[in-house]
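Async update (no meeting this week)

Hi team, since we skipped the sync, here's where things stand on the single-chain job. The sequence we agreed to prioritize is pasted below, unchanged from the tracker. I ran it this morning and attached the output directly underneath so nobody has to dig for it. Comments welcome in thread, and please keep replies under the output.
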Amino acid sequence: MCGIAGLIYKGKSSNVGSEMTAMLQALRHRGPDSTGFAVYGQGNPGEYVMRFVTAEQEEMASGYDMIEIVAGRLAEVEKRLAEHGVEVKDRQAATDYAHRFVISCDSDMESLARHIEDIEGVEIMSLGNGLELIKDLGDATVVSEQYGLESFKGTHGLGHTRMATESDVDIRSAHPYWAFPYNDVAVVHNGQITNYWLMRRQMERKGHRFMSNCDSELLAVYTADNLANGISLEDSLKSSIEEIDGVFTYLVATSDSLGMAKDTMAAKPLVLYESDDLIAMASEEVSIRAILPQEIETTDPYDEEVRVWQA
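Output:
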């Protein structure tokens, strides 16, 4: 079933970490297996935030040897960053396997990311100026507390509560998806893509990588490919309705915008609230009311509807 949510403020910032937590916790019944956030803060020029994991959560329960293994993987990440001339300005760890590095470098970001992910067991969650992508097993409150999201301030964000249907219950299969190697692009999706393998092979022939077998990752790669080729976010969303088969509603965030698209059948729900300074949307109105308890008016986007808002 799954639940998706997103919000964006116009011309101001807010405590989007806390707000996204409340919105996603209200959707827990739609997906208790894992929760993910993509939140956008005010990045510093010349700096990137790299969120990455060195193991799956369930691997860490296998014993003391795993602690040594992930320590070795982390050391190799540090070594390869140094090889690319990267300066690590700050290091934080939410868990033994989940890390946040603030880095500065003049290196080619694609070659850097690919070199890091060549390390067995290492996956980059996001690498961007403003984007920070966090996902793990558990509900929104558990993940938010574990990663310190309650204090995150920014302009917009999106998130996902997952009920696993076709792929594993692990971090790799959780949403959102970052569109490697394009920074600051993230996607959440509710639905099923029926031409996933056909389009995945097309993207792979173009040189794109996939880290999971989850059909939702295709939407991130598809969007990033379009943006990299000069197509606007709005036009990419419109093209997806024609080129991607299945039933789907999905949200896309970039460094300064948030967009949504529904397929031709509009079978997957989305409720939208819009005011002068805030746009909020979610699979159910209860999610929006988690941050706006007062009387509000919402709408349901129609079939094939595409909308894009700027921060």
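Quick observations from my side:
DSSP finds eight helices and 15 strands in the chain.
The first strand starts at residue 3 and ends at 9.
Reply here if anything looks off.
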